[in-house]
Amino acid sequence: MLIKLGKETLNVSHKYNFIFIFIIWLFFILSSCSEPKKVYIPSERYKHIKVVLVLPWDLYLSSTEKVFPSPVRGIVSGPLESFAQETMNELLKKELLSLKTSYQFVFLSPVEFESLIGNILEDIKTPEEVIKSLAQKTRADAILYGKIYRFKERKGKGFAAKEPASVAFTIVLYEGSSGKILWYELFDETQKPLSENLLNLSLYGKIKWLTAKELAERGLNRILKSFPK
Length: 229
Description:
Blueprint: H1 2-33, E1 51-54, E2 58-59, H2 84-95, E3 104-107, H3 110-123, H4 127-138, E4 142-152, E5 155-157, E6 160-163, E7 166-175, E8 181-190, H5 201-204, H6 212-223
Parallel strand pairs: 1-3, 1-4, 2-4
Antiparallel strand pairs: 4-7, 5-6, 7-8
């Protein structure tokens, strides 16, 4: 009788081990399928890039989709705070400091960009030609362009927010000589309680509700780790 009980206990133990392993396996499968795999241009194409023109952040408008194409689709747009562009311009400039040993970054102000792009669009219509013209006029080897789809501030305090911050943006690197996309990334996040998603502790950095700026800063830091070096 004791022997039988021991076998049953052993079988139950094996059963739970199997269930645990299956859950872990399923988690990795779902994680790998959660985002489409990004395909970048071969690294050899980056060797000639020294000067990168950084455009001021754009706000999502369907009318501008044709000017600066992006391979990212299906992003849910949302509220855009009045300070979204200024905040993202500051954050990007700060985050790109870590890449200054690899590239020389030239930043256009919103006024400079509007004037330059206005003149270009009078004569040029196709996206690739627009990017090539931008690069030629500014003597840049590549163009870095970002678009904000959602920039919603949290409502409430850091430890008692009524609504969480929500941020979504894309960033694309175009080759100046061809107008082709060299690299791109997407950040799309609405903060969730850690009890619902412990995996995002590395993103949130602390157990509190982040502001939209804090969430965007962490997002930029994360996606720029894949920036070609």
